[in-house]
Amino acid sequence: MTFRLGLTGSIGMGKSTTAAMFRELGVPVWDADDTVHRLYAKGGAAVAPVAAILPEAIRGGAVDRDVLRAAMKTDPELLGRLERVVHPLVAADRAQFCRDHGQAPLVVLDIPLLFETGGQAGVDAVLVVTTDPETQRARVMARPGMTEALFDQIVARQVPDAEKRARADHVIETKTLEQTRASVADLVKRLSGGGDGDA
Ligand SMILES: CC(C)(COP(=O)(O)OP(=O)(O)OC[C@H]1O[C@@H](n2cnc3c(N)ncnc32)[C@H](O)[C@@H]1O)[C@@H](O)C(=O)NCCC(=O)NCCS
Ligand SMILES: Nc1ncnc2c1ncn2[C@@H]1O[C@H](COP(=O)(O)OP(=O)(O)OP(=O)(O)O)[C@@H](O)[C@H]1O
């Protein structure tokens, strides 16, 4: 039986970095954000439905995220409309990944919106990554194309960090890479042993 560990955390909390550490240890990782990137790429299944919502977002046959971000700044309804077409496609991709890795003892499902989309029903335990709000904001603001307003808009759609931590089975701090790597190794050891992870 495969143990499915859901990995989540608010924007900039360190999901991708932590997911990479699971991969380094040989754990198969599925990534919701990466899936959206594939769906938005040329030939991807989200291109046509996004074109129906915002035709100018299609550049060279792919969805252009810069255009989406710019449009979101003036249209607060846009993100919700995107979610309605993108989320079912993401869910189908995730189901296929779980079928493909049915023999693995442990898989990680990196899902930014796990709590927001009821994703905890499809996993055996939830790992939340976290850091303090100042570090979170500084990390996200360091990204090109990000503004304070867009950061606040995205955070407002996410379950607050304190609630995520309260609902988690496991919590890992992402203060330093060394500390996080050690916590990940410890968790993999516990969850790959065939136990229920509570030990
Ligand atoms: C808003 C968009 C244009 C921003 O693109 P960009 O390349 O700048 O960032 P990226 O996609 O890497 O997302 C960064 C982070 O933003 C947060 N985020 C993204 N979409 C959402 C959302 N719908 N609600 C809340 N947070 C979100 C997540 O924490 C994510 O890890 C893009 O994320 C998008 O098209 N989102 C809609 C699809 C969606 O809901 N994706 C979420 C994963 S299923
Ligand atoms: N364990 C850690 N120790 C120190 N710095 C970290 C750690 N994890 C992440 N970071 C820093 O935080 C930044 C954001 O991390 P990451 O991209 O993993 O976040 P994320 O939760 O996947 O973000 P998003 O929700 O926006 O996709 C990284 O660029 C890195 O500099």
TrEMBL record:
SUPFAM superfamilies: P-loop containing nucleoside triphosphate hydrolases
Major site of localization recorded for this protein: cytoplasm
Keywords assigned: ATP-binding, Coenzyme A biosynthesis, Cytoplasm, Kinase, Nucleotide-binding, Transferase
Pfam families listed in its UniProt record: CoaE
Coiled-coil parts of chain: none
Signal peptide: none
Gene3D superfamilies assigned to the protein according to its UniProt record, in alphabetical order: P-loop containing nucleotide triphosphate hydrolases
Family to which the UniProt record says this protein belongs: Belongs to the CoaE family.
Record function comment: Catalyzes the phosphorylation of the 3'-hydroxyl group of dephosphocoenzyme A to form coenzyme A.
Protein known as: Dephospho-CoA kinase
Organism name: Roseicyclus marinus
Gene name of the encoded protein: coaE
